[in-house]
Amino acid sequence: MHALLVEDDDRMAQALGTALAQRGHTVRRAGRALDALRHVHEADFVLLDLGLPDLDGLELLRRLRTVCDAPLIVVTARCDERDIVQGLRAGADDYVVKPFRMAELIARIDTVRRRTGIASGRSAAGPSGAGGRPVRTGDVEVDLAGRTVTVAGRDVRLTRREFDVLAFLAARPDEVHSREEILDRIWGDAFLGASRSLDVHVAGIRAKTGRSALVRTVRGFGYQLGSPAAGDEGDGGG
Length: 238
Prior knowledge:
GO terms for molecular function: DNA binding. The chain has eight helices and twelve strands. It is an alpha/beta fold.
C-alpha cells in the first residue's frame, strides 16, 4: 500500500515513515499543501498533519476531499474539540492527537483501511439485501447502491462516512441499532465511542439534509432511521 505522509516536521516524518515502511508500505512525504494536492492521487491512504507552513490543514483536508476518497487520518497536535469536530466533518476517517503511541497509530491505520474497504462497497447497506433499491422516509430518498441522498428532490452531498452511517440505518429501517453495533460495522471498532466520531457524523447528516428527525436517537442505546417531515427543526433526540 502507498501512503502519502503530509508532515512538515522532519523528525516526525522520519519516525512515521520508518514505522510505515516496517509494515510494508511505501511512503511519499509531502511537507507542503501544494505537494500533497499534487501527489494525493497516488495514495492508498493519507496521514495529514494540520500545522503546515503554506495552508491551514483543515482547509487542505477539505480540498483533498474534493479530489480524493482515500482513507485519511489526521495526525496533529491540535487537541481542541472544535478542531476535532471540524476535521471529522471535513471528511477525516479518524483523528489522532500528538503525542501518540506508534503502535496505536498503526492499529488505527489498519482499522481505517479495513473499514473503509468494507464500507465503500455494497456491504455498507448491510446483509438484508436492501441495497438494490432506494429507501424513502418522508421526503428523503437514500439510494444505497448509487450512494446518493436527495431531500425533496434536491441532491444532498454527504461525506463518505456520513453516508455510510445513514445507509446502514436505512438498510434496516425498522431496527434500532446500538452505538457499539454501528461503530463496529462502520468504524470497525466498537470501542471508538469515546472519540465522538459517531455523534459528529450523525449531527452532520441532520444538518446537511435539514431533517433533524432523519436519524432518531434512542437515548442510552443508539440510533434508528427516523421519519422526517419537511422543514422539521427539532433536535432529532426522539
